[in-house]
Amino acid sequence: MTLPFRLPAPRPVTVPRSERFTLANGITVHVVERRALPIVEVLVVLRAGAETDPAHLAGRAWITGELFAEGTKRRDGRAFGDAVDTLGATFHTRAGWDDAALSLHVLRPRLEPALELLAEALTEPAFEEAAFAQKQRERLASLLQEKSEPRALAGNAFARTAYPAGHPYARPLAGTEASIGALTAADAAAHYREWCSTASACVVVVGDTSVAELAPVLERTIGSWRTALAAAPPAIPAVPLQDGPRVVLVERAGAPQAELRVGHPGTPRRTPAYFPLAVLNTVVGGAFTSRINMRLREEKGYTYGARSGFSHRHGPGPFVVSTAVEAAATADSVSEILKELVRIREEPVGEVELERARRYLTLGMARAFEGTSGVAEHIAEQVVYGLGDDYYEHFAERIRAVDAVAVQAAARAHVHPAHATIVVVADGAVAAELGEVTQSPVTRVSE
Amino acid sequence: MAAGAHLSLPYMDLTLDNGLRVLIHEEHAVPLACVNLWYHVGSKDEVPGRTGLAHLFEHLMFEGSLNVPAGKFDQWLEQEGGVNNGSTSADRTNYWETVPAHALELALFLEADRLGGMLPALTRERFEAQRDVVRNERRQSYENRPYGLASELLSAALYPPGHPYSWPTIGYMKDLDGMTFEDALAFGGMHYTPPGATLAIAGAVDAGEVERLVRKHFGGIPGSARAATLTELAVQPRAETLVHEDDVQLPRLYLGWHSPAMYAPGDAELDVAGVVLAHGRAARLQHALVHERELAQGVACYQYSALLSSTFRVVVTARPGTTLQQLHDEVMAMLHELAADGPTERELERARNGIETEHIDALQSVGGFGGRADRLNSYLFYAGDPDYAGRDLARYRELDPAGVAARLRECIAKPAVRLSVVPRGRTDLAVT
Questions:
Q1: Which residues of B touch A299 (CB under 8 A)?
Q2: Which among B291, B292, B327, B352 is the top mutation candidate for probing chain A, defined by the most A β-carbons within 10 Å of its own β-carbon?
Q3: pTM
Q4: Minimal Cα–Cα distance from B312 to chain A, Å?
């Protein structure tokens, strides 16, 4: 059935253009002027993510990120928070695998004092003992809470099973009980000295301001930061395919649902297969109408939702299918997921489905650039992964160039159901059926 | 304040002959359009024994209509780069599509076709399938989640049996099990009508063209009487202390008191009290309980505003070694302190500035939950005026510390509900 009317042709998506200038200390500032609302978003991006953590100190980058908000040389965490909040600003810090960032969101009339606070956190963090100890204890209490949280149990079991012992991605980004317990405030200060460097930092500003307005205050504040050069973070090792499927059952007696993760290590962000994989993922599990979601939710009613995704990091982050299904449907759900992963390798995707996936990705780009954070994050992504300043200007045409042959080739190279890690967090009763559908031994773990 | 000028959203206001009210707001900064429909019915309009019907019906609305075969709703939208969603609360049900501007007519067509033509296309199979999905939603969001059942226990304690806010919007599992296809048909027939809904469109659109398309697609839907929905109901607060054992590692305390309804006098004062107490690093409970004394893993305090009445809540999670009685006593001491002296001028400035930033931020999106189109509908529903935003923000400018103190005093003087969620076998950690 077709629509009883014709839609006008879609308009091409305009990708916001940024202007750049460089501060005296070498930091590049990217600015996108958006005058419609009196809002400014400022992002300071540092090459100081969890990929820099020494093996026994998982969580070091993460806890350092948390501590930027917990006191500077001039004032403690409460005073700093009070100063930021009184401006009506929000100040966030985050540390991911590939970068760390300090972000500021404020109304234009209060931009200058907010920038001064941001610069203070960036250039003069205190990493004071008491603040560190509080964060450490808070994280240890969170880890305790994770023992009752099926989603955390699934994610952690998946990472440590899919990646070889010792691989950075086998560890939780925010650390384990052992690694967090081993950290000290001095470790956070060391991480800051070693990895937070002007040489690998950039600033992104989006909103009601301009290069001319920003240059003096940024030069005075962030531009006065002086650091040593940082080394390049260690390369993340590739991961060979495991011999066959590996099935882990984390037992939770009486759980009404099974939390499922099916996948394996994927590919880095710079993979040449990025565009075919983006289209592939949309078809398989990256949209509401995707195959796995339709099958498990709409057709079978097993779940509230199922999705798949590639975590493209500097290294090969995981490809994983995630869902929570009613307990009785556990084995059948695993079976259906594996069938879809086989199918995308074996059968070329039909043109209707493929075109819908391409259009969803290309026409949907306008939403990505609607708000200041979306624009800022896309520019940051271009910098963190070295994609080039005009990456998103060519994004749509590169998606449009993906055909069924490219998708199938990408599937054969990068989707491996026969070598998948399958994690199930559920009542132990599912073990037998699980072993049958996967034709594999099931490793049982109790929590 | 200069920022306030941005809050007023100009819109075209019209009502179709069939009773559908339509609001159209042009915003050309980004080439998107949002179609947003509020049905003025929520779980408060259900009856005991048939809870969860409003939300289940929301699910059914995505499963096809007379001219939209099952599955096509989402496929046709995705084909044009669009996204969509909906939600049900105790008060209302909303649906929205955000599309690149060229696909405006598609979104209008889809909403109109399901307003007028969902019921005739509904089958028992679709009903059964979505009932399964909703059961799984309940398991995922409430039953298989630490503290997941706390909200429904709290509601049942705050409101007496039979009060429409006493049951959870997701519904009780036994009510979902007992729901019938005929229940769904009756519910839709009564509440899913043009006079029972308001339609807001915002984005890179031409108002005149939108009006033409709205009349084209919605104009032919027959009018009907607007079904009565609940808009007022008095509450008799009663004190309750309850304990729930759960699969959790850390005990958590929920406190609740009745408070003034959305936008009623006192609502803004209690918003501010919540911010002063627990929003941000320097907030009183945050600083004292989480950072300075490390008695709590986390704390939240907020005015939960709704149509019939609101509740003022504190939610605090204990660190290992702290009992909920200890936390309760600390929290109450700090509430009484704020209720006696009110916030400082600096605390008030902090709260006001943060709220102002939130209001301006909300204008960044035309679509989605909380975007411009949703806000037009929300202000119309709760305040009777789609252009209430300026007035909303002005409430915070107009209040003062003494007013905040007085409203908080009044609020916490009422009978309180206290719910302790503790690890199994650890009722010793609960509040008595």
A1: 129
A2: B291
A3: 0.96
A4: 22
Residue from the list A148, A252, A372 with its beta carbon closest to the beta carbon of B248 = A148
Smallest Cβ distance to B360: which of A8, A13, A39? A39
User: Do the Cβ atoms of A52 and A233 come closer than 8 Å?
Assistant: yes
Q: Do A289 and B78 lie within an 8 Å CB cutoff? A: yes
Burial readout A328-348 (b: 16 or more C-beta within 10 A, e: otherwise): ebbbebbebbbebbeebbeee
pLDDT tens across the length of chain B (432 residues): 456 678 999 999 999 999 999 999 999 999 999 999 999 999 999 999 999 999 999 999 999 999 999 999 999 999 999 999 999 999 999 999 999 999 999 999 999 999 999 999 999 999 999 999 999 999 999 999 999 999 999 999 999 999 999 999 999 999 999 999 999 999 999 999 999 999 999 999 999 999 999 999 999 999 998 888 888 888 889 999 999 999 999 999 999 999 999 999 999 999 999 999 999 999 999 999 999 999 999 999 999 999 999 999 999 999 999 999 999 999 999 999 999 999 999 999 999 999 999 999 999 999 999 999 999 999 999 999 999 999 999 999 999 999 999 999 999 999 999 999 999 999 999 999
**Nearest residue, CB atoms, A11 vs list B83, B101, B282:** B101
Determine contact: B360 vs chain A, CB below 8 A. Answer: yes
**CA–CA separation, A70 and A84 (whole Å):** 12
Q: Could you give the CA distance from residue A228 to residue A226 in angstroms, rounded to a whole number?
A: 7
B8: Cα separation from own chain's centroid: 22
Q: In angstroms, rounded to a whole number, what is the distance separating the alpha carbons of residues B327 and A194?
A: 41
Contact B136 A150 (CB under 8 A): no
Among A88, A142, A324, the residue with its CB nearest the CB of B353 is: A88
Q: Half-sphere exposure of residue B253, counting CA atoms within 13 Å on the CB side?
A: 30
Does B143 reach chain A within 8 Å, measured CB to CB? Answer: yes
Distance CA A420, CA A100 (A): 30
ipTM of the complex: 0.96
Nearest to A330 by CA among A419, A429, A230: A429
Residue reference for tokens 């978003």: A41
**The token pair that represents A10 in the structure block:** 């879609």
Give the E-state strand segments of A311-346 in sequence order: 318-326
User: Tokens 């979601």 label which residue?
Assistant: A293
Q: Tell whether B195 lies on the interface with A, counting CB pairs under 8 A.
A: no
Tokens at A397, concatenated: 């045409």
Q: How far apart are CA B40 and CA A398, in angstroms?
A: 44
Substitution target in A40, A288, A323, A333 with the highest count of B β-carbons within 10 Å is A288
